[in-house]
Design brief:
Blueprint (H helix, E strand, L loop, with lengths): L1 E5 L8 H10 L4 E5 H7 L5 H10 L3 E8 L7 H20 L4 E5 L8 H20 L3 E5 L10 H11 L4 E6 H6 L15 E6 L25 H10 L5 E4 L4 H4 L3 H20 L2
Parallel strand pairs: 1-2, 1-8, 2-3, 3-4, 4-5, 5-6, 6-7, 7-8
Helix pairs in contact: 1-10, 5-6, 8-10
Length: about 270
């Protein structure tokens, strides 16, 4: 498993500052936060981005995230799909292999919504495949559909496209209805990306993204998750993803060091069992 940091962990820092400071903290792979990259590109070019990546010896295996594709309708749907197309172009241009797509299916849920979800995933996989990009569906714990690993895996299997797989986010896996036994639905073929965090001293029912903390400091059974990934010989990327406003106050250079240390410790402890 290959360690990376999600840029959202330093949300208020500019794109280029992340690269410089994360590299100083011995991080050489990032889960790109797309909005941050898009802001940078308002005054810079993709060649500038490639120059930075080369300068700091930084890999960009994944980008997060795209929402609004599955059951949105009308103008909102048009905007979401237009943005998705532009982001696929961007991923292709910068050789970003995987684009994370949110399974953000909201209530109320009807039969048409289920069919629209499946059709949208087929369309997303086809469009991504044409660009040489993979789509990683991320289950959402609070969604009306696709809120657990089993259902998300079934959705991916129904589409049966090599361009569509899963993003396992430890937060959504833990606070939603997924069970540890559901890890069996992950395979080397369908698992495209992993995002880790932790939670401490808060009931799962009340946990929010803002409660995410560094992996290894809380109650999520990360050891069980990582051990399973090791058993299935997952050799892809594992990124820290935190949306905690308190952590956003930590300078990127400092976070790069502590984030990579925490992640390597979690991955290393599991591999020693």
């Amino acid at each position: 498993m290959k360690p990376a940091l999600g840029q959202v962990c330093s949300l208020h820092a500019p794109f280029d500052k992340d690269l410089e400071d994360y590299a100083a903290g011995h991080c050489h792979a990032i889960d790109v936060w797309l909005t941050k990259l898009e802001i940078y590109l308002q005054s810079h070019s993709c060649d500038d981005v490639r120059g930075l990546l080369e300068q700091y010896e930084m890999q960009v295996p994944a980008a997060s995230f795209q929402g609004g594709l599955l059951t949105s309708q009308g103008p909102a749907r048009e905007l979401a799909w237009e943005l998705f197309g532009a982001r696929l172009d961007l991923c292709r241009e910068l050789a970003i292999e995987t684009l994370v797509v949110s399974c953000d299916v909201s209530a109320p849920l009807g039969e048409r919504d289920l069919e629209r979800t499946r059709t949208s995933l087929q369309q997303a996989a086809h469009q991504a495949g044409e660009q040489g990009v993979r789509v990683a569906l991320e289950l959402q714990a609070r969604a009306a559909f696709g809120n657990n690993l089993q259902t998300a895996a079934v959705l991916v299997a129904e589409v049966a496209s090599p361009a569509l797989g899963l993003c396992l986010d430890a937060f959504h896996f833990h606070v939603g209805p997924s069970k540890t036994e559901d890890l069996i639905y992950l395979t080397k073929e369908n698992l495209f990306h992993v995002q880790l965090c932790d939670l401490a001293d808060i009931p799962r029912e009340f946990a929010t993204d803002a409660d995410r903390i560094l992996p290894g400091d809380g109650d999520i059974p990360l050891k069980t998750i990582v051990n399973y990934l090791a058993e299935m010989e997952y050799d892809g990327w594992v990124a820290v993803e935190l949306m905690n406003p308190r952590i956003w106050q930590i300078p990127p250079r400092q976070f790069g060091e502590i984030g990579m240390t925490a992640l390597r410790k979690v991955l290393g402890q599991a591999s020693m069992d």
